[in-house]
Amino acid sequence: MEKVDSGLISIFQSSYSAPELMQSMRDISTLSGVLSDLGAQQFFQTPGEILRLLKIIQLLNEEALGLSGLIENTESIYYRYRNRYDDKEPPSQKRVDQVIQVLVKYNWISKQTRRIKMRDVGKRMMDMLIRLANDSLAYYMNDEIGRSLFQARRDSDISEAYDDQGISGGNKIASMIKHVQNAITLLKERELEMLADRHALPQLELIHELMNDLDVKLEERFKKFQTVEDSLVLTELMQRGTEVLTTGTNLSLGMIKKYLKFTNMQNTPFSSHIQPEKIRRFISSMFEPSLESDIPDVYQLLSFMEQNQYKDEAVDGLWIPVKFASPLTSGTIEVAVDYLENYEPIIDSIQEEEEDIVYANEEVSGVDLERHIAESNWLLTKEMIDTTKIEAYFEKQEQATLEQVVIEATTEQWSDAINALTAISALVSNKEIVISKGTEIREHKQYEKEWEWMNHEDGKDIVKRKRDNDHQRKSK
């Protein structure tokens, strides 16, 4: 799946020294710092304290979106909180001040003379925290099976919101399939319990509806990713996803059929005439019924049975429990037997070897330190500014006019001229080339271009490659 994500924007595919990657990691660092400082001030001791913190963040977020008036100071937040939320124990003015101080410290907000203003990094981080809390709330509003299906649906939504826009959502197709697998496992474990529950039909219908919905969503996701390059990578996922969704849909459909058949069976009149052949076929079909079949196996049949449903049934002397535990599989029994037969208790104490920490001193002269810093700055500059075309030009040309370098190294277009001048400026600052006024090159070529110099004499400046830098690079 990583190969599928290779064409998307992802931190795992970015260059380690890319400036934008470093900045994104700094954002994560500020998030860690905010949570750490707020945790040290006991803002995460109880769920109530966490909720109050999120409510304060929501007030700041609404102001940034223009949904409420300007926030002048912490007192505005304090009184706005008391007016907005029905909280029996609202945060004190001191607690609000503590939150604002931490957010200002990590540049999430800026505290101006008459306004507390949200910064971009703060808005993104606060939005993320609120979405995380809302997602968790929606997750826990479902039962155990519904939670896995909810996560699968969220994976589909995230893939649609991120992957379709060229940003990696984090292997959400594989995650979606995994959550459906977990839901199927839980559904099989609770199958007998649901069949014994007289109010489980709405839940079964909801599960089946979610399975059908996820089947459609998964197919849409595959179509979005299915290109020539991705087809080989997606083949295994497509097969697994199709198999999982088919199993889940058939399982939920079969449970609904059995449930309805059991319910209708209670209203079916008894017949005094026994047909042995039909009974034989029914018993035979109970051994290995398909998932979508309405024929129950013996465990499902006994699980659904109830006692004393009609007059004098209790005197028959037959007692059947309402719920049956799921039977152990042969594989589970084999694992348990093997564990008991081959179990060897550990009686020897664990020997811990202490390693001596060796510290090494490395001294660097001031000249070498300056050189290393200069090289690091130059590498960072090259990551942000493309200087390859200008450098390649001066590998063949010893010197030229500024206009000649700009046009011959790139093109006559205005955008290329801007990029070329930026690259020349970077090379000059790193002492790779020098620009001087002079008349060493008397002939000045004329070029057709989309732009003009504000000062025509600027284009006649002489750009030279510095020889000493070449020798230094070769010696290195």
TrEMBL record:
What is this protein identified as? Uncharacterized protein
Q: Which organism is it from?
A: Bacillus pumilus (Bacillus mesentericus)
